[in-house]
Write a structure and sequence with these properties.
By secondary structure, the protein is of the alpha/beta class. It has helices at 32-40, 54-62, 119-124, 140-152, 166-174, 185-194, 223-233, 239-252, 255-270, 284-287, and strands at residues 8-13, 47-52, 67-69, 82-84, 90-92, 96-100, 130-132, 157-159, 180-183, 201-204, 213-215, 218-220. The strands form three sheets. A five-stranded mixed sheet has the order 2-1-3-12-4, with helices on both faces. Strands 8-7-9-6-10 form a five-stranded mixed sheet.
């Protein structure tokens, strides 16, 4: 099987802090070291690393090419062409609303008691324009809100495909071409350290976001891909790598985000739902108790 099986082409996004593809810190991204350890535990396969774009990942998987990635959010629409591992390898904080530091909607943020805002209510008000990236997903509830709003008001939910990843979108946001975008706070913090940012940003929690987001290894939904995922599901001895990944992630979080993350992880561990694969459906209100 090993000789006849094609190598696994691991598609990596050029996206700090998840992958660092060049420079003195090459290979030190959140997912880089985990992928290195996982690859060593799959000696029956050859492993090739390829820099990719999100669009190219989708195209390769839809074409049934022998590719895998650690960079896709698990949403139902992707399962037709993507095979996800049975358990997540990591759990992270959900997306937030990102805005320029001094910005507020004309009617104010209308924050709820927990400090979050409703994306649906914000879009329904007609007071904001949202900039988005094509193909990027934020979780089913947020995705549905954006999809419905984009269909009803295409001038309100804008897609900026030419800018690729979040760094380009933030530069466009700083030039006031739209009012807010969605992303992960840790991404913005790391971009501040590695790039010249034209603006400072604020993060606003979203009422429709889950408490935590599980992330999975994923391969093409083919006989080959299912075989690879089966092999990945059987890999043992990765607990230390998962702990190291969590420690590295925590070290990059802003202080407030770190407090929230630890409280939510503690709530999941202590609560009735102990499986990491179920954390996305946990009640955010319960997970945030005592945090804000």
């Amino acid at each position: 099987m090993a000789a006849a099986s094609p190598p696994i082409r691991w598609l990596l996004l050029d996206f700090v802090p998840y992958h660092v593809i060049d420079g003195p810190k090459q290979g030190t991204g959140l997912r880089d070291q985990y992928l290195s350890a996982l690859s060593k535990r799959l000696p029956e396969y050859q492993h090739q690393l390829e820099i990719s774009s999100t669009e190219r990942i989708f195209q390769a998987m839809q074409a049934g090419q022998p590719v895998c990635t650690l960079s896709l959010l698990k949403v139902p629409e992707r399962e037709a062409y993507t095979r996800f591992a049975s358990e997540p390898y990591f759990v992270q904080l959900p997306p937030v609303l990102i805005a320029r530091r001094a910005y507020a909607p004309p009617g104010g943020w209308k924050k709820r008691p927990g400090g979050d805002v409703s994306l649906a209510d914000l879009l329904r008000s007609g007071e904001v324009k949202v900039g988005t990236l094509p193909k990027r997903r934020y979780g089913q509830a947020l995705d549905d809100i954006l999809k419905q709003s984009r269909a009803a008001h295409p001038d309100q939910v804008l897609v900026f495909g030419e800018y690729g990843l979040l760094s380009g979108l933030l530069h466009t946001l700083s030039r006031k071409r739209f009012d807010v975008t969605l992303g992960y706070a840790i991404e913005v913090e790391q971009l501040r350290k590695t790039q010249t940012s034209p603006a400072d940003f604020q993060f606003v929690a979203l009422a429709e976001a889950p408490a935590l987001i599980p992330t999975y290894v994923a391969c093409s939904q083919t006989a080959w891909g299912r075989q690879v995922i089966h092999a990945i599901d059987r890999v043992t001895g990765m607990e230390a790598e998962k702990s190291r990944l969590r420690e590295q992630y925590e070290s990059m979080l802003p202080a407030e985000e770190l407090q929230i993350y630890r409280a939510r992880m503690a709530a999941v561990t202590a609560g009735p739902v102990s499986s990491p694969s179920n954390v996305a459906s946990e009640s955010k209100a319960g997970a945030r108790e005592g945090v804000r």
